[in-house]
Amino acid sequence: MIDKQPSQLLPDKDLGDFQTLVEVVARLRAPGGCPWDREQTHESLKRHLLEECYEALEAIDQGTPSLLAEELGDILVQVAFHADIAREAGDFTLADVLTAINSKLVRRHPHVFGDTIVSDAREVELNWEQLKAAERAQQGVRKSPVDGIPSALPALSYAQLMQDRVARVGFEWKDVDGVIEKLVEEAVEFRQATTDAERVHELGDLFLVMVNLCRWMDVQAEDALRQANGRFRSRYLKMEELAEQRGLDFEQLALDDKEALWQEAKTIVG
């Protein structure tokens, strides 16, 4: 059997429509559609949603627009799948999802869709948090800014979001010097730790202060570490490659020789 190209199965003018994606997913999950797609549930798709988000982050880090466009499409597939599963179960529809998010965006941007006046992005953030707090109060939800942070977030992202929230309600250093001084203080406390439990405790505090420093520098800690991981991996692979090209047993090299290769690799791959 000869596979048909998408343009032979769907008009080209429809391939760029979100509704086409919705209809394709509905057909995949309908009787007579794809057996694998029909078996999926919200729970079984959780890891796929997470993986697609991380792949989109990687595409952003690589600075490749075409790859980012592809990965964003994969995320939209996940949205369409979850919405179709919910529709089939009678829980909600895609229209409910869109109504909720469009209403929220308009409600939380009164400086765009209303008469509220703001002077800068910082004031927008403060208004956003105040509006969220008012919504939580109406719903009878606790008002603490540290509530409602997804527990499944990576630890660095969780820490930064938590610190962002408490800073907006005034729990904040006066300037970045206070953060740096705290970092030095925590490093001293780590060196003074005498047990494994104390060292774990102090290392955790060090991580929190480092995340706070990232926040003050307007850097996402998760992004910074992910990019550093990528640089380390590229440099290490280049070290191994250089050693192999020179007939050297990388694992048996002295540490000074490995450090020399590391410095050389840095100049090559950055």
The shape is globular
| Radius of gyration computed on alpha carbons | 25 Å
Q: Care to count the β-strands?
A: 0
Alpha-carbon distance between the termini? Answer: 49 Å
Strand content: under 5%
Structure description:
The protein has 270 residues and is mostly helical. Helices cover 71% and strands 0% of the residues. The protein is built from 13 helices and no strands. The two termini are 49 Å apart. Mean pLDDT is 91; it is low at 1-7.
Produce the secondary structure layout:
Elements lengths: L5 H4 L8 H12 L5 H5 L6 H17 L2 H25 L4 H14 L2 H4 L7 H18 L16 H14 L7 H17 L3 H21 L4 H25 L9 H15 L1
Q: What's this, in brief?
A:
By secondary structure, this protein is mostly helical. The protein is 71% helix and 0% strand. The chain has 13 helices and no strands.
Key traits:
single chain; 270 residues; mainly alpha; 13 helices; disordered N terminus
